[in-house]
Write a structure and sequence with these properties.
CATH class of the largest domain: Mainly Alpha
Distance between the termini: 69 Å
Number of strands: 2
Number of domains: 3
Radius of gyration: 34 Å
Order of helices and strands: HHEEHHHHHHHHHHHHHH
CATH superfamily of the largest domain: MetI-like
Strand order of the largest sheet: 1-2
Helix content: 55-70%
């Protein structure tokens, strides 16, 4: 504690303090070298780095995305609305608007993309009328319950695409006509994903039970996912050979020794779906097994004590717990299914004719023939179908359950 001299002398011996005059600041008595100096260039740069650290850390990733994702996307849009001709030393580009899309939907490539349209059968007309009535009822039901203009536009797009796909199958398959690459792709996605999910869920339920050797089965079921699609394609092409394959005696024993699956459209599609399912069942199996093992056991044990059966436990307890994971894994598989290209290219090259040619393989063949505009147009038609189906599935399955809970 500092004491003040009654004589009025400065405590540090600087003489008497004048009345009414403020005391000198302590910093005024300090040497000049101890006073605060403005920051130099190095300090200012360090402060700028600290302030911009977030941006600087994500810039490499953003740059790679712009180079390898956004730029090809913009370039493909430009190509889809034009006609590109390659020549020595460069290329020529001519803007043609929607002609590439018109050629696929209504022009000379309609048979290739949509299929062959002749007279629609009675069963086909029944499918079209039934789909129209159901979709109109679905839209009216949404408007009466709760109307939101953005949700209504989304459902209108979904209903339009659904009606178009039903009309497509009614005019082709249901009427005895050949469908194009769009129908083949939807066949791969619909039947393939349904088979894969059913078998994958069954295997996951089996391995989640207290059985002996389930670790061995887990590893064994996971092996197909480690094999490249090229190897799977050649392996199934060899296994399905009824004359020289390893199962040729079995094929001959059942009377199919002279049958050529590669010349029959539905047999070729079935073999491709079988090969694709064998490759992707392990993915669904592993994800659903992890979801099942994270299900609370208390609920199951309580239900067993109350006398609930296995089906009741699965329907009321297990399935609601794993449903979000199951919907997510199905969404991933649907997206991957639309991009199927390697198996039909290796096993059948899209044949017989275009019976096994997917939309991705269709775009690849157009690119090989240097018709870049048609290839880009097919790719964007595939993108439109994929986005509408996947967004509709997410809104009507995943988000609908989230709103109800």
């Amino acid at each position: 504690m500092t004491t003040v001299d009654p004589s009025g002398a400065d405590p540090i011996g600087a003489g008497p303090v004048a009345a009414g005059r403020p005391a000198r600041k302590a910093s005024a008595a300090l040497p000049r070298s101890f006073k605060e100096r403005p920051p130099g260039p190095g300090a200012r740069f360090s402060e700028w780095l600290d302030a911009q650290a977030k941006t600087l850390f994500i810039m490499p990733a953003v740059t790679l995305i712009l180079i390898f994702s956004v730029f090809p996307l913009v370039a493909s849009i430009v190509i889809a609305f034009g006609r590109v001709r390659l020549r020595g030393g460069g290329y020529t580009y001519r803007f043609v608007g929607l002609r590439n899309f018109e050629k696929q939907l209504f022009g000379s490539e309609q048979y290739h993309f949509l299929g062959v349209f002749t007279e629609i059968s009675v069963f086909g007309w029944m499918m079209i009328i039934g789909a129209a009535v159901f979709l109109i009822w679905w839209l009216i039901r949404y408007v009466r319950r709760k109307f939101w203009w953005l949700g209504f536009i989304g459902r209108l797009i979904t209903a339009s695409l659904a009606f178009g796909l039903v009309a497509l199958f009614a005019a082709t398959t249901a009427s005895g006509n050949q469908f194009g690459t769009l129908g083949v792709t939807l066949l791969y996605v619909g039947i393939g994903c349904l088979v894969q999910f059913s078998i994958g869920l069954g295997l996951a339920l089996l391995c989640s039970q207290p059985i002996r050797g389930k670790t061995f089965f887990r590893v064994t079921f996971f092996v197909p996912l480690m094999i490249t699609p090229i190897g799977i394609g050649y392996a199934f092409r060899m296994l399905a050979d009824t004359q020289k394959g390893p199962f040729a005696p079995a094929w001959q024993w059942v009377g199919l020794g002279d049958f050529s699956w590669a010349t029959d459209p539905w047999a070729a599609r079935s073999i491709i779906v079988l090969a694709d399912s064998w490759q992707w069942i392990p993915f669904i199996f592993v994800v659903l097994l992890a979801a099942l093992e994270n299900t609370p056991k208390d609920y199951v044990e309580a239900a067993e004590v109350d006398g609930a059966g296995g089906w009741q436990i699965f329907r009321e307890i297990t399935w609601p717990q794993i449903m979000p994971v199951a919907a997510t894994v199905m969404l991933i598989r649907v997206i991957e299914g639309f991009k199927l290209v390697d198996l039909p290219n290796i096993m059948t090259s899209g044949g017989p004719g275009i019976a096994t040619e997917s939309m991705t393989l269709h775009a690849l063949f157009a690119w090989r023939s240097l018709d870049l505009g048609q290839s880009a147009a097919i790719s964007y038609l595939l993108l439109f179908v994929t986005v509408v189906i996947c967004v509709s599935f997410f809104n009507m399955v995943v988000l609908a359950r989230a709103r109800n809970t």
